[in-house]
Each structure stands twice: as C-alpha cells, then as structure tokens.
Design goal:
- By secondary structure, the chain is of the alpha/beta class.
- The chain has 2 domains: 2-122 and 201-295, 3-Layer(aba) Sandwich (Malonyl-Coenzyme A Acyl Carrier Protein, domain 2); 125-191, Malonyl-CoA ACP transacylase, ACP-binding (Alpha-Beta Plaits, 2-Layer Sandwich), CATH 3.30.70.250.
- Helix content is 50%, strand content 18%.
- It has helices at 19-24, 26-39, 43-49, 52-56, 58-74, 90-97, 103-123, 136-150, 171-183, 204-215, 238-247, 255-264, 278-286, and strands at 2-7, 83-86, 126-132, 154-161, 164-170, 188-191, 226-227, 234-235, 267-273, 291-295.
- Strands 2-1-9-10 form a 4-stranded parallel β-sheet, with helices on both faces. Strands 4-5-3-6 form a 4-stranded antiparallel β-sheet.
- Helix 2 (26-39) packs across helix 7 and helix 8 packs across helix 9 (171-183).
- The longest helix is centred in the middle third of the chain and has 21 residues, at 103-123.
- The chain is globular.
- The two termini are 24 Å apart.
Amino acid sequence: MAHAYVFPGQGSQFSGMGKILYDSNPLAKELFEQANEIAGFRISDVMFSGTDEDLKQTNVTQPAVFLHAVIAFKMLTDAKPDMVAGHSLGEFSALVANNVLSFGNAFKLVSIRAKAMQRACELNPSTMAAVLALADDKVEEVCANVQKETGEIVVPANYNCPGQLVISGSLKGIEIACEQMKAAGAKRAIVLPVGGAFHSPLMLPAKEELAAAIESTTFNTPNCPVYQNIVAKAVTDAVEIKKNLIEQLTGAVRWTQSVQAMIADGATHFTEVGPGKVLQGLVQKVNKEMVTDGVS
C-alpha cells in the first residue's frame, strides 16, 4: 500500500487562490514574498484579487498554480509521499515535493517556461480540443490522418483518463480533426479556451529556451520516485528527470498511463495537492477503487 501525491496543472486556477494560506501561515507568506521577488512583480496580488482574465494569461497561470500547490504541500508537515506525479505544469510541483528541485529554482524554471510558452503561442496561433468517448487508438489514427492529408499539425496531447483525450495543433488542423473525431464516433470534440497548442511540436521554440534553463539548474536525487508525463513510469535518476522534463513540453502528457503505473507499483491512496479537484476525478475514472482526497 503506497500513498501517491499528485499535483494539478494549468486550468485549475481561480481568483483568490492561496489567500487563506498567505493570511494564516508565516511560512506561506514568506514563500509568496520570495516568489514575488523572483517574478519581479507581485504575483500574489494577481492570485488573490486578479480577474479571471488576468489568471488565464499563461505567464501568470503557470507560476500561480505552481505556487498554490507547492505552498499547500509545504503546510503538510506530516506528508511523506511514496511516489509523486504532476499533470503537465504540475510535474514541477511534484519535483519540489520529492526534493529534486528547491522552491526557488523550480519557481524560476516555471516562470521561464510560462514566458517561453506565451511567446511560442504568439508566434504560432494554435489551440487544443477535448475529445470525449472515443478510444485512444482511434484519436491517434485521426490525428495522423489529418496531418498526412493536410500537412497541418495535430497530435494527441493529454491522455487524461479513458474516454478523455485532448489534442493539440494548428487552428485549421484542430478544426478539421474535431469534425473527423465526431464522424469517427466521438461523443463530443470541443475546442478549448487555451492560448496555444501545448504539448505539441508548435512548442519547439519554448522547448529550446527551457532546455537551456533546466540544464543549468541543480537537480537533486529524489526522496521518492516521480512518475513523469512523457514516460509514464517511475524515475529516480536526476539526469533522466531533466531529460524527461525537457521533452514534456512538446510531448504528450500520459496521465492515464502514469496513474495506471502508480497503481501497478502499489498506490492505493491518491492525494491531490493544489487548486481544484480535477485529478481526483481523473484517478477515479482510471480506477474507481482508489482512495482519493485533496488539499487546497
């Protein structure tokens, strides 16, 4: 029996996030102020009182979700994960939780990642779409066919749970793919309100910038395995963790497969740390027998 701690990614943000932590705990306040200094602006103020539109900006959303998740985890003085994982951005929070990255270094990397992804979005207008109730292999087939027939970029991006796969690509490619997904039997194929084609080749400019920052950052030996998105298996080697973290930016988030791997390795209890309850729901859809709870 193992206890897994999992960390959410972009999309779980909300106005007011982290305010209770800031007001009630001196350590939390200290960490928020440290982040404000690294960011060069008071990101805590945006989190506490910014509009939904403010929080949708990639260069704000990612550091904000990371901050909330990591600070919430640090308030859990009795937390002793047997394994950790994070959904996309959440992988950085997971790497703080298992001692691979320091809080300051991780926040710097998340900020660099967010700004680089924002620039990549502006360079190549693109989007993502959620495909519901269609087998993964069929989604993969449709994406491959659209790319072959049109030359547009369309790839599987987030394997969230059985029956829910997010695709990523060019505006035209996603439009065509959504029609073909529905024709192939998908219950729905919905374009998402996101800034760009995350976890696709269109993020290559951001990947190059992030890679340089990751390579120059110290990664420690983890306290417990991290199940990384790109490989969906336990990783304990710091060099391999670096490589996988870089590849994640243009590769798929294999969340379904990661949860399955954690369960196969003994996980029976999943605690989601950070804003929202999305990951608890996804874990239950992978295996309804799992115990799930959350700390926000």
